[in-house]
Structure to design on (609 residues):
């Protein structure tokens, strides 16, 4: 037990050091790519709370990502609001929408849950297309991210890619640490229990409905936060933040990386973001390849890349 | 224009769309009731029907030929999907079946964009269906009446097959108790395969007749699948009667809703879905388990 904790500690320290030193070794272009990876890692982590741990397959997680992004960009555009408050409001707006929809969608599990989340995502998408006042319709909303003002410090320039990288990474690391500790809390444990055997959890006396709503809201909060970061990063938010392709993207990332594990979604987010960047310059039919990878993994590696990796390691150990 | 005067015509519009929706939903419901898997790719199969029809029409110039062959083409694709993809992940559970069909739907949309391009296509109708007739005091397009007739014919045919023939008895028995039907010596996997093919055929047929009416474009699968899911939730998964009732209600909600609140017509059906979820979580005709 103690050795396990030391190992965890070493992994985290190594990771922190790696992330801290990274900007000094790569070009600005690649740093931008890394920022995208970091933001999508958070999005995939939020999705993993639902899909990986609670076993709830959602096809509508883009709704919270998009609403978070729209909230943040509108706040930046119309109000003189700090960057931390802005991004936090993105998360809160995601959580609020998650609460409203969550009250309905968690009433049903399995297949119904999947199609309800999809239907609600489409409702939000249709709303975003029509409600031009807040979303700018097809054109989107553009605004610059403000500088970071911390009490006791001078203004920190967020226009600099490196500063922005540290800011995003810091926030995502905090959230990732929360997601990691969340799985060790009673609610986090119950979350996995719901996936394994919902009836038994009910017999023990847990309020399944309330717990599911809370879990759904937490997941929506982080999705909104990721959306807010993505919106402030690109400085323009369009309907592509909220459409079905975005909802599919986070599902692909989490599944391809390996749902239910902590590192799986992160690996998936980095892997797909990287492939997206390299392959989309080679072929315009990149989505087709992404879909094919997904189908192949569903058929032959149902636990994703991290599952594949674990299998491979077992295989190697047995051979020796 | 007087609202009351166009109301009958608007109701007829709703009926036509509702029946078309039912034509697509019936295949989905059939497959779900039988195999317990919601086929996300159903909308994609419907879209393929529309595009196949467009291509057959381009090569031969005969709409009637495309009405016969395009659905058969879609059925073949459905059978290939069931036999070589879906059956292999069956052991992993429902979530994987759902994920697989989702991946297929995703890929079909991309393939359609690649082969036919992203622009909406115009399908030319034969002159017999192109005109309009005087009906309820207005000129009504013949083609919409044609959609209504075809949908009613298919519904009648399905009803007869399912409830009056030996094949239908086997299918219904397999829905009720797969193991028992298997033990009685029927080839249940074969029944599944044919049923999936039939569901795909229905989706393809709906695509052929729906394509000219609802515009053939790569987004048509995503558009209809939302309405389909609302139908399925409202009617109750696996219930054909529920699918019929819900399709008709949604057809009316859309066509009458557009009269009064054109911007928010789409909201009504989601409202209906939310209400059904609160008061009848298993759908209007679904069985609570």
């Amino acid at each position: 037990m103690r050795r396990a904790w030391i190992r965890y500690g070493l992994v985290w320290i190594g990771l922190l050091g790696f992330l801290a030193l990274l900007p000094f070794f790569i070009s600005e272009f690649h740093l931008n790519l890394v920022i995208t990876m970091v933001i999508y890692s958070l999005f995939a982590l939020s999705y993993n709370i639902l899909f990986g741990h609670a076993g709830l397959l959602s096809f509508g997680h883009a709704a919270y990502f998009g609403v978070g992004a729209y909230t943040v960009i509108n706040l930046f555009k119309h109000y003189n609001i700090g960057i931390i408050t802005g991004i936090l409001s993105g998360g809160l707006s995601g959580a609020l929408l998650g609460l409203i929809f969550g009250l309905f969608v968690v009433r049903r599990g399995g297949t119904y849950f999947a199609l309800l989340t999809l239907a609600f995502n489409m409702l939000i998408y249709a709303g975003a297309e029509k409600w031009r006042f807040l979303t700018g319709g097809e054109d989107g909303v553009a605004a610059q991210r403000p500088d970071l003002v911390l009490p006791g410090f001078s203004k920190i320039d967020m226009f600099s890619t490196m500063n922005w990288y540290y800011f995003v990474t810091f926030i995502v690391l905090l959230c990732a640490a929360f997601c990691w500790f969340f799985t060790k809390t009673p609610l986090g444990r119950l979350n996995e229990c719901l996936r394994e055997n919902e009836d038994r959890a009910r017999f023990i006396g847990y309020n399944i409905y309330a717990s599911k709503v809370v879990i759904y809201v937490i997941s929506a909060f982080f999705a909104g936060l990721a959306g807010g970061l993505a919106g402030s990063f690109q400085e323009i938010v369009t309907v592509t933040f909220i459409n079905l392709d975005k909802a599919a993207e986070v599902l692909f990332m989490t599944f391809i990386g390996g749902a239910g594990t902590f590192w799986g979604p992160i690996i998936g987010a980095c892997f797909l973001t990287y492939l997206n960047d390299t392959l989309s310059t080679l072929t315009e039919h990149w989505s087709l390849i992404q879909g094919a990878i997904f189908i192949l993994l569903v058929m032959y590696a149902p636990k994703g890349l991290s599952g594949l990796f674990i299998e491979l390691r077992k295989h190697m150990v047995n051979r020796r | 224009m007087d609202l009351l005067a166009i109301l009958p015509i608007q109701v007829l519009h709703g009926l036509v769309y509702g029946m078309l929706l039912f034509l697509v939903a019936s295949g989905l419901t059939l497959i779900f009731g039988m195999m317990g898997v919601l086929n996300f790719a159903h909308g994609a199969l419907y879209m393929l029907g529309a595009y196949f029809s467009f291509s057959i029409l381009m090569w031969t110039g005969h709409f009637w030929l495309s009405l016969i062959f395009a659905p058969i083409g879609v059925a073949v694709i459905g059978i290939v999907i069931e036999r070589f993809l879906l059956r292999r992940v069956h052991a992993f559970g429902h979530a994987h079946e759902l994920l697989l069909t989702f991946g297929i739907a995703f890929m079909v949309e991309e393939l359609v964009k690649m082969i036919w391009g992203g622009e909406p296509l115009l399908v030319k109708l034969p002159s017999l269906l192109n005109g309009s007739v005087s009906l309820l005091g207005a000129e009504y397009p013949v083609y919409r009446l044609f959609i209504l007739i075809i949908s009613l014919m298919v519904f009648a045919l399905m009803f007869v097959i399912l409830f009056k023939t030996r094949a239908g008895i086997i299918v219904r028995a397999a829905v009720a108790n797969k193991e028992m039907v298997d033990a009685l010596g029927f080839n249940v996997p074969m029944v599944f395969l044919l049923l999936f093919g039939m569901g795909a055929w229905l989706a393809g047929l709906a695509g052929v007749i729906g394509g000219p009416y609802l515009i053939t474009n790569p987004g048509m699968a995503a558009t209809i699948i939302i309405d389909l899911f609302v139908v399925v939730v409202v009617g109750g998964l696996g219930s054909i009667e529920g699918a019929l009732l819900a399709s008709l209600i949604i057809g009316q909600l859309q066509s009458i809703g557009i009269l009064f609140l054109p911007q928010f017509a789409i909201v009504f059906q989601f409202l209906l879905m939310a209400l059904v979820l609160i008061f009848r979580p298993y759908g209007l005709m679904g069985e609570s388990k």
In short: Chain B touches chain A through 38 residues (CB under 8 Å). The CA atoms of residues 2 and 51 of chain B lie 38 Å apart.
